[in-house]
Design goal:
The chain is of the alpha/beta class. The chain has 2 domains: 247 residues, Rossmann fold; 211 residues. A 5-stranded parallel beta sheet has the order 4-7-10-1-11. A hairpin with a 6-residue loop joins strand 8 and strand 9. It is elongated, with a radius of gyration of 33 Å.
């Protein structure tokens, strides 16, 4: 099928079917997004590829806001994919949009706003050059900070432009356009809206309600065509926070985002976002390791020592998974192993990726971030362990440790050597069936599974683990064993006294 070249002048544009004046003049950006959304809904297409867990909550609310042609705000804690959702709105824009070439505010060729474009059309008519905007070029984003000025957002007088062009300062040609006018005929997103100073929020009133802006003292109102979207933390987006109430009143919909509602959703997000596939050596991440990493984030969100207002970002399990894989990769490279399999001990090695993403309450700060995180990991291991080994009898394993057995894992120890030590624990390897691990599997897989089982026993207080001794009998059980030994000695001593022989050593 022949591909027709795009119109390059205003005359060619008027005579084209795709960009006719009748078609472009009847659609605003919000109409365009609505029309494209309707098409995607009819086709049952995925509206937000890569966004997991919002299908039945956030997405329907966004769809309703777009169908209603409303500006909207996403309210949520950090790491809830707010920015990604806003950026993915460009998929609802047309593939390309014509504008007058060289225009700073991407003027509509049929309805130019700025004086420069009006003069150009008056001078060149149908020969006026036309350029095209892609979807991504029609998205403008600004992170709100207290130092943002009205000039940054709306515009200001530009004396340099006036001097170079020999224009009077009152001329429209001396305007410097801010980000909002430069987003004309597109989507303008402001992240962390309440962080804008109050007077800057007031500057948005007109564009939100009347659909125009006025730059500095120019007696000119620019009727911009912009879809406005925002994001904010719910804590700040209140009358007690930093939002100006009249601006809040002008936003059409407040849509609440949330963290993954299940471990499976969180694991899917982490698997999608984390850099786990490496070229240095083959890597196989066991499902139970993925589940523990995700459970750490879930446990942190429920822990009273972690600040709920700050939240626990989904970036925590993502960065943790990357560090876990890296530690396993490092071990495999050092020992020349053909397969890298992350272990639970690799999660402890990823502490730097966890502590930096938690805001602790006073109690947590008193305990120390490392201590809190270690306890969160142990809690996570215990919960995941219960899914696999609820009906598994581990008494034989516990008895081996209670009789004085100990075993210590070390990153400097090859998997083959670790596996040789593990085989000494009676009944251990046979209990790994729930993890779909067999004794005949490659050593890294068996070692990882065995360590998870032992860590689970530690989490359920059936064993203990220390940096010095490694895995050993649970301290209480060890003390009771020592006490029973003393009782035996005492009974022997009493018997010896009654028979008149010996004494207590």
């Amino acid at each position: 099928m022949a591909v027709h070249p795009l119109p390059q002048t205003l005359g060619e544009l008027r005579s084209s079917n795709e960009f006719s004046e009748a078609r472009l003049n009847t659609r605003s950006v919000k109409d365009e997004m609505r029309a494209n959304l309707i098409c995607r809904l009819k086709m049952k297409a995925n509206l937000f590829p890569g966004i997991i867990g919002f299908e039945d909550s956030v997405v329907p609310q966004i769809v309703n806001a777009i169908l209603s042609r409303q500006n909207f705000i996403l309210l949520g804690l950090r790491g809830q994919a707010k920015s990604r959702i806003l950026r993915s709105l460009t998929a609802l824009l047309d593939e390309r949009l014509p504008y007058i070439a060289g225009c700073e505010i991407r003027d509509d060729p049929y309805r130019p706003l700025c004086k420069r474009c009006r003069d150009l059309i008056a001078e060149r008519g149908d020969a006026t050059p036309i350029a095209y905007l892609s979807r991504d070029e029609r998205y403008v984003e600004k992170l709100a900070t207290p130092d943002v000025t009205v000039a940054d957002l709306i515009g200001d007088l530009d004396p340099i432009k006036a001097a170079r062009g020999g224009q009077d300062l009152s001329s429209e040609l001396t305007m410097h356009y801010g980000l909002l006018p430069r987003a004309n005929r597109g989507i303008f997103a402001i992240n962390e809206l309440p962080d804008l100073a109050g007077k800057i929020q007031v500057a948005l009133f007109n564009i939100m309600q009347e659909g125009d802006v006025q730059i500095k003292g120019y007696p000119v109102r620019l009727a911009l065509d912009v879809a406005l979207v925002f994001s904010a933390n719910p804590e700040d987006y209140t009358a007690r926070g930093k939002i100006v109430t009249p601006l809040k009143d002008r936003i059409g919909s407040e849509i609440r985002t949330h963290y993954p509602e299940s471990i499976e959703e969180g694991m899917a997000i982490t698997a999608q976002e984390a850099w786990s596939e490496r070229s240095a050596s083959p890597i196989e991440v066991p499902p139970y390791v993925r589940a523990v990493v995700e459970q750490v984030a879930f446990s942190a969100r429920e822990d009273k020592r972690v600040d709920k207002r700050s939240g626990v970002s989904q970036r925590l399990p993502i960065s943790t998974m990357e560090l876990v894989v890296s530690n396993a990769e490092r071990r495999a490279l050092i020992h020349g192993e053909s397969l890298a399999v992350p272990r639970i001990s690799d999660i402890y090695a990823a502490l730097p990726g966890i502590t930096g993403k938690l805001e602790l309450e006073y109690e947590g700060e008193m305990r120390g971030a490392d201590t809190v995180v270690r306890e969160l990991i142990r809690t996570a291991v215990g919960k995941v362990y219960s899914r696999y080994f609820t009906d598994v009898d581990t008494q034989q394993i516990e008895q081996w440790f209670n009789l004085g057995g100990t075993i210590k894992f070390d990153d400097d120890q090859p998997s083959t050597a670790a596996l040789a030590d593990l085989r000494n624990i009676q009944g251990l390897i046979e209990k790994l069936e729930p993890l779909e691990t067999r004794s005949s599997d490659v050593p890294p897989k068996v070692v990882a599974a065995a360590e998870f089982l032992l860590e689970g026993l530690v989490a359920h207080r059936k064993l203990s683990r220390s940096e010095e001794r490694g895995f050993a009998a649970q301290e209480k059980a060890q003390r009771s064993k020592e006490r029973s030994d003393l009782e035996v000695e005492f009974d022997d001593w009493q018997r010896s006294r009654r028979t008149g022989r010996g004494g207590l050593n």
